[in-house]
Amino acid sequence: MSYIKVVLKSGKDQSLRRFHPWVFSGAIKKIYGEPAEGDIVEVFDNKDEFLGLGHYQIGSIAIRIVSFEQIEITDDFWKQKIKQAYTLRKDLGLLDDPNTDAYRLVHAEGDNMPGLIIDMYGDTAVVQMHSVGMFLIRDKIDEVLKELFGDDLKSIYNKSESTIPFKAKVQPENGYTFGKSSTRIAVENGLKFRVDWEKGQKTGFFVDQRDNRALLEHYSKGKAVLNMFCYTGGFSFYAMRGGAKLVHSVDSSERAIDLTKENVELNFPGDDRHDAFALDAFKYLDDIKDKYDLIILDPPAFAKHNNVLNNALQGYKKLNAKAFEQIKPGGIVFTFSCSQVVSKDAFRKAVFSAAARSGRNVRILNQLTQPADHPVNIYHPEGEYLKGLVLYVE
Ligand code: SAH
To answer: Is the CB–ligand 1 distance for residue 337 below 6 Å?
Structure first.
């Protein structure tokens, strides 16, 4: 099998030599042919030395490397990669944990499969492609999943409609590619969640906060808790189980608030410690006074691109300052950023500025990140997208 050859400009080979898996369009000197989007192409430096094989796509990231070895990309190649991801989750104890059946099976670059996300919810796999190359091999991926999980897999839902660039000629549609599961209750650390992969955000649930929610439980006893940007209410139930005296969940989406209420009923039927409000975070935080002694701030990615980075940092600063200014003395803030373009340092500086603005004494108790089923490829530091701090506000 021969692949179309792509030659990089002089000096643009350095990141690939350090195994970073992206080739930006500006780094390309010449393409020997006309690859279709999603084709595997072969990348060389301008002295004709082989660098890697990757999926070609029109866009700023033109090639996503899938192999740094000059091999043939066969069905078995993909099977081995998915199997490696599966084995890691098995080693992490996630495949047969009676208390948790929601986890990430494939985390794109973190599992050396750029462009592919697979989240498991019980007997359903939700597959999300971010590259045309991955979308084109969706049938193979489904086959491997069926082989690996056997009877434990009842359905596969493909949710790539809004994640594949709209100009690509593949027209993805969301829908089941295998079975149709009626079970939509997932379990995380023994708590139940209704997951709506069809209409919900991302693959239906934010599996990446599992460990951080578990930590929150230990901080919640006797506290008045505000779960800001609650989505399906994840942090709220952990706070309730941890013995919080009151939990308020806030999200601007009515649908999120409905799901949160439904999930509270699933876990703590009739418990009147919880209330939920569909309101804008910035408005809600304008006037909370010292009502709360534990506040969670888990906003959506404020920056999706580098050119809006500055605005995003201002957003984090403003949001955190509002919490610091009003939280009860001795209060705890769990604050997060899930923007890939906001580095750990930049986020910490934004939180630092917010603390300084409030004039309160603020100390860092824990530094948080994503769980082990969202591994970070050491050569692709951008993969460390979730950053969090637990802060003690005097
Ligand atoms: N903490 C959640 C995930 C948060 S996702 C969990 O553990 O699952 C971010 C959420 O912020 C989304 O549900 C979105 O609807 C909400 N959101 C976005 N902008 C908002 C705003 N201005 N005010 C309140 N909520 C907002």
So the answer is: no
Q: Is the pLDDT of residue 1 over 80?
A: no
289 φψ region: left (φ > 0), alpha (ψ -120 to 50), beta (else): left
Give the pTM. 0.96
**Residue 310 sits in the same domain as residue 366:** yes
**SS3 annotation, 248-285:** EEEECCHHHHHHHHHHHHHHCCCCCCEEEEECCHHHHH
Nearest CA to ligand 1 atom 20: 252
Nearest to 295 by CA among 349, 336, 252, 242: 336
Q: Is it the case that residue 167 has pLDDT exceeding 80?
A: no
> Do 52 and 117 share a domain, yes or no?
no
Element (H, E) at 326: helix 309-326
Within 8 A by CB and 6+ apart from 288, the residues are: 226, 326
CB 294 within 8 A of CB 225: yes
61-67 and 50-56 beta bridge pairing: antiparallel
Structure tokens at 175: 């829908």
Q: Which domain holds residue 33?
A: 4-67
**Nearest CA among 47, 38, 45 for reference residue 3:** 38
Q: What is the CATH number of the domain that holds 34?
A: 2.30.130.10
Residue 318 in contact with ligand 1 by CB distance below 6 A: no
Residue 197 near ligand 1, beta carbon < 6 Å: no
Rounded CA-CA distance 372/363 in Å is 26
Q: Encode pLDDT of 173-203 as tens digits.
A: 999 999 998 668 999 999 999 999 998 889 9
Q: Where are the beta strands (DSSP E) in 146-214?
A: 155-158, 175-178, 185-188, 191-194
28 lies in the same domain as 91: no
Q: Residue 177, class by beta-carbon neighbours within 10 Å (0-12 exposed, 13-18 middle, 19+ buried)?
A: middle
* Structure token pair of residue 375: 């591994």
Q: Which atom of ligand 1 is nearest to the CA of 235?
A: 7
Percent of residues in the chain assigned helix, strand, coil, to nearest 5: 35, 25, 40
The Cα–Cα gap between 216 and 221 comes to 10
Ligand 1 atom with least separation from CA of 231 = 13
Number of domains composing the chain: 3
Asked if residue 202 has its Cβ within 6 Å of ligand 1, the reply is no
Report the chain's mean pLDDT, rounded to a whole number: 96
Residue 223's closest CA among 282, 273, 284, 281?
A: 273
Dist. CA 236–CA 192, nearest whole Å: 12
